[in-house]
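Entry, Tuesday afternoon. Goal for today is a structural model of the target with adenosine-5'-triphosphate bound, before we commit to ordering more compound. Inputs were pasted exactly as handed over by J.K., no edits. I checked the ligand SMILES twice against the vendor sheet because last time a stereocentre got dropped in transcription.
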Amino acid sequence: MTAPRVGSVLSVRDLEVRYRGPDGDVCAVDGVSFDVRPGEVLGLAGESGSGKSTLAHAALRLLRPPAVITRGEVWIDGEDVLALGPGGLARLRWRTASIVLQNALDALNPVLTVHEQLADTLRAHAPFPNARAARLRAEELLALVGLGEDTLDRWPHQLSGGQRQRVNIALALALRPKLVVMDEPTTALDVVVQRELLQRVLQLRDALGFAVLFITHDLPLLFDLADRVGVLYAGRLAELGPAAAMRENPAHPYTRGLLRAMPPLTGPRRPLAGIPGAPPDPAHPLPGCRFAPRCAVAAARCRTEVPFAHAVGPGWRAACHAAPGLPATRSP
Ligand SMILES: Nc1ncnc2c1ncn2[C@@H]1O[C@H](COP(=O)(O)OP(=O)(O)OP(=O)(O)O)[C@@H](O)[C@H]1O
Ligand SMILES: [Mg+2]
């Protein structure tokens, strides 16, 4: 068995998640390993269906049937998450690690005011001497995410999408967790609001010191704002490394393709080039590299041999036979 990296707030090791079905399994996450260090922002990008939400839910044990974790380990703040019982999981969630869900715009209870939702979460986990103390803490939390005290007595339908999302982030921060997972918290918002929200999260991270696993389709946003970036393709990590180095010189052909497919927010306009072809059907996995049918530099070997991770640079690896760098290690 492997061990968590000392000092990591989240360690995922060789994780495999399958969806069971009448016609066989769909392997949605296939041998993924990575760490999130205290206080860092790790961005995770990949096309729709690449397994981002499945991975996030597996890490916090939020998966529901037919999903099953069939291999691997998850450690959060030194705890073996896959071995935790219901009591341990209840302690872990919100207190040590929290999540802003992908469809979080609809996650607030429509019949509770913002204050009632915040107070419920606070009271469920921490005793407050009186209602006034809970209200003050709720006010403080809203101020953290840039919302005024007047928001407290509003109902979700009276808030804009961006405001509702800020309330969700306040809820996720309510118990001062060490890790906050944000699963595309901003897909329903426009790109400018998305960028502003992530910038706000970064300020909060600087002030409060929590780590963030930030999931999005928007790879350029991650290159601008995350410390490190992971790129998922068809359930496997194609590349993981420091944002600045990866942005300058992406090692995996898929990362390069994703970048070319996204419009830059600033700088000269250029024609967008999508990645030809479509992601593979996860019910019928290909041998070798899953990106090979869409890859401009694929060789015969890529269609038969799974590429293991190559160290491309310090703290930077790419699962590609053609990637430059050191000899392959055993972990994909
Ligand atoms: N309940 C389910 N039953 C069967 N397969 C599922 C189920 N949920 C997800 N999958 C499959 O698992 C794979 C990964 O899905 P997942 O939702 O994790 O992707 P994602 O990267 O989060 O996509 P998106 O960007 O659209 O949110 C997909 O192929 C999907 O079809
Ligand atoms: Mg998702």
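The chain has nine helices and twelve strands.
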